[in-house]
Amino acid sequence: MSPVLHFYVRPSGHEGAASGHTRRKLQGKLPELQGVETELCYNVNWTAEALPSAEETKKLMWLFGCPLLLDDVARESWLLPDSNDLLLEVGPRLNFSTPTSTNIVSVCRATGLGPVDRVETTRRYRCSWL
């Protein structure tokens, strides 16, 4: 079974505004909600026998990142939940491949990353409670 690699993208300014909107909307229903933080996760199905080399990992991080932000992609999550936090991950079902995955795989193959055969994107939410 091939490993699934995870690449986490730190929220940029516009995602912070979306988090604020989401928090305000949820606080109407859940007044004890203190805050909501988000991040994007690229779940990469890697089919090679060996894990990606440093050069391949660098390419993947470059593809998933913003060219204007440095170090906005990491292999570890930016969201570190406390004991009272709830961490949710929302994305497509794993039993079919999305059109976005097909497009990302085409870009990966064009850059020499042949072992990538599927990339699904999920949104992760950390909800903080009072």
From TrEMBL:
KW ATP-binding (keyword) present: yes
Superkingdom to which the source organism belongs: Eukaryota
One example of a Gene Ontology biological process annotation: purine nucleotide biosynthetic process
Phosphoribosylformylglycinamidine synthase N-terminal domain ranges (all copies): 81-127
GO molecular function, one term: ligase activity
Keywords: ATP-binding, Ligase, Nucleotide-binding, Purine biosynthesis
Residues in the signal sequence: none
Protein's name in the database: Phosphoribosylformylglycinamidine synthase
Source species of the chain: Gorilla gorilla gorilla
Gene: PFAS
